[in-house]
Amino acid sequence: MSRFKKLFEVKQQRVLNVYCTAGYPFLDSTTTVVNTLFANGADIVELGMPYSDPLADGPVIQNSSSIAISNGMEMQVLFNQLQQWNENTTANKRGALVLMGYMNPVLQYGFEKFCANAAAVGVDGLILPDLPEYEFETEYGAIIKKYGLDFIFLVTPETSEARIKKLDSLSTGFLYAVSSSSTTGSNKNMTDVDTYLQKLQTLHLNNPVLVGFGIKDKQSFDAACRHANGAIIGSAFIKALENTNEVAATTQNFLESILK
Amino acid sequence: MMTTTYKKPSEQGYYGKFGGAYIPEMLHRNVEELQGCYLEIMQEPAFKKEFDSLLKDYVGRPTPLYFAQRLSQQFNTQIWLKREDLCHTGAHKINNTIGQILLAERLGKKRIIAETGAGQHGVATATVCALKGVECIVYMGEKDIERQAPNVARMKMLGAKVIPATSGSKTLKDATNEAIRDWINNPNDTHYIIGSVVGPHPYPDMVARFQSVISEEMRWQLKEQTGSELPTHVMACVGGGSNAAGAFYHFLDELTVQLVAVEAAGHGVNSGMSAATTQLGKPGILHGSKSILMQTADGQVVEPHSISAGLDYPGIGPLHAHLFDSGRGTFLSATDDEAVTAAFEVARLEGIIPALETAHAFAALKQLKLSTTDKMLICLSGRGDKDLATYMKAMEE
Ligand SMILES: Cc1ncc(COP(=O)(O)O)c(C=O)c1O
Questions:
Q1: Between the CA atoms of B271, B273, B279 and B285, what dihedral angle is there, to the nearest 10 degrees?
Q2: On chain B, which terminus has fewer CB atoms closer than 10 Å, C or N?
């Protein structure tokens, strides 16, 4: 059974997914962050594969991506780090691991080789926001499936009901509900989020729903969890790691502030 | 029987293996809306009538097809210049912005965003926004704001807000990123007027169609002057590729016509300071379409270099990637210095100061073996007023 299935079987509420850019703040901090997140209450960790031109990201994640790239993070470096991590981590010390990134670096690495390596180092699912559904259905979906990886599509408040159902039917793992029409890290007002999430609840989707974009503290996490299975925190955690030398302690403090 | 056409992308927006719409879900509704309606709107008689009449009375079309006698003598051939520099605002860019503002109006959009490199597309967008009384925001790389100051001033006078893009190489690629992010954040009232044949489907096809007036006129003008519609060569510079797409469009399926695209080699193709995409790039995805892209082995986009802000872009439109890949197009490049030298040559031989972008096309003339019977049409995409500071600096040296 997939790690997501197992997770959502035992936990349908307040599922916490935390995003961090791989190789940020330091090249070698990636797996420290992953381990500390899992040890302190994160159910899912989403590792960002840094890209020079992250279109869906606001300044905070853009900046973390360029820092990670100048730290020397590359696709193969990330796989090497994760391979070691996977060898040294027991199943009860980890949750589900997702790789998030843009299509171009993945294509350059080789799409099939990427999926094969991801599966081999213990990755459970992929989020590639600029992989369109047509190309997913005609070309890439089968490769992702072949290696047993889950694939998570995004929906937004602008996504039509028919399309939400379509994207839900193509997704496995969970469905990523973007809270507002924005790039990551925006401070857009979340007042309409309730209505949108309630609408999602009435659609009887196949997948659990996690809410992302704009979740930054305990209050917004609690609010998001009211009408969804959980939430995703990204920019706020990246900000917390800014200027820190104590990656593990900062990560622990951050999670405590969310889950207290 | 299969008839191949280079003009029309597939339903999913592919030219051969290039194109598509690689966009995050946040852009889906707007892009899908455009995909669903652009052809229909463009074919409405009322739309066509307004588009044609603005091109004629406001832009000043048809632009002349001018036989360049002294330049022809210099290269021992026959050269005509398609005078897009005589368009209102000084470049071909306005053909597209007129079309897109009319489209935006029909979609009920009240806010226009655009990216610009040389500032010509920004000026052309600010111009049509003033014409229609709508809000205009132009993203421009910080480096380009410095080197194309006259166009920044023009945009401001026309009432546009110019927002500097400060990430990456601070040029056209980064301005495009910022414009796309703006569109993500403003999904309801905003239309994004992309300035070249790049971006997710339907932009490459839509912009090519709006620019195709260039080759439509070339055909009847050449016939008027020579009795025959078909040249042997059509040549244009390529940044994203909109003036080239417009100049090639009605010749794409005339296989006797050699289509020559000229990219910016910067300090030299192998200098590490270049924007010669087809020479240096590999298939990749940028700004919503699969095309040829300058990138590292790890798939990070390489920061390009060209003296000309309008060519300083690490990709090309998917139509051009297909023309390159299929061999239908001939791709050449010219360096910064060659472009400046060619600009002076054209100025002194023909009394025309071309834009730095266009100067790259002229600079490639010497790389072609042209005969006295060849008929070469060059798209003179814009005038050089915006580049006088660069040209004057070259004169001093
Ligand atoms: C005069 C002129 N020519 C050419 C270009 C390059 O654009 P494209 O390749 O889309 O024609 C520009 C872009 O700013 C321009 O201003």
A1: 140
A2: N
